[in-house]
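Support reply, case 0932

Customer input (verbatim):
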Amino acid sequence: MLIQLIEQHLYCITIKNHHLLKCDVIKSILNLYNQINLFLINKKMKKYLYIFCILQLCSCSSINKKNCIIEENNIEKTNSVRITTNEALYVDKVFADDSLLYLINRKTDSFLYVYNKFDFSFKCCFGNLGQGPDDFQFPFFLESKQIQKNVLKLYDVNLVSFKNIDIDKMQKKEKDAIISVSMPKYIIGSPNLYMTNDSIFIGNMDNSQGLFFTYNSIRNDLKWINFPKELIQPENDFSVMNMNRVAINEDENRIVSAMCYYNLFFLYDMNGTLKRTVQLGKEKIIPKIIDKQIISEDNLIISRDIASSNKYVFILVENVKEKDFENLNNKHSKIIVLDWDLNYIKTYKLPHYAISVYFDKFAERIIYTTLNSEGGTDLYYIPTRL
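Our regenerated output:
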């Protein structure tokens, strides 16, 4: 009876940690168990074999959570659907609530364009270039777990301000449609900024201070998470090689960082403790630096952008060289889908070269932007669901 329970436990370890079956060490342990078990007649010896294998599997499980190789074995070619946005020609960022699609559009008179997200009909546009409380210069969407209907939260890194926008009031051209408040100086310049509540912010900057930060605005406390040992450590202020983008999941206590010039993804908890490192592909890719201050044009751009849902992380992967960035004919991006433990789920192979990705949690679909031949952008979504 004891032997049966131990054998069942051995089975459960491998099933509950199914990603471990891809590990060569795990395979060797299981093969060794099967081979030796055939020749063992004494039940006492079998019991010791079971216990040995369980201990080895548990040990390997904890190690494997730190490092793992992602082998793409579930690749799907997408039949992407274009979203016609004739008014917004230079889309940089995308956001959606339960009924509207919001686009940050660069290089035009208005920064923000609003569409019905079901038929993609144009609703309105607003946001002039300027210095006033109702104006914009370089805005980003402020990410948060709580999404209010028809209310946008943005931050403008050039104006150093947060902006809350009531879309209904904006369409009626009411004066208090945009509420602008000052932004803490410590988090200015973050391309990814997430607000966990009214006082805690998580984000990153392309500088030498660390991989990402948490900032408590009430305590005025800024905490940087150090660059992992797998990365090149910055010298002075040069840290372009460690550019990254982050995704946050409060419910799962997870933060994922995807590196621009490395084929590495890092998993942290909300306290900044490194939980796991995974590598995309067997060959490690690291950036080349010239004279300790210049990124080589031969470097591959790996992770361009990141998005997430409650269940998955979506990483936009390019695999193009810096010097080829403006010559992207016939280049194709892909979106790597991982769960929040960084286990591989699937790969979407895109028919285009994409520059950003967003996941619409309400419609449960991936939206991405591409460069077109006119120098502008096109918007697409993937019709299939996970």
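We compared this against your earlier run and they match. Two observations from our side: The chain has two domains: 2-64, 75-382. Residues 2-64 form one domain. Please reopen the case if you see a mismatch on your end.
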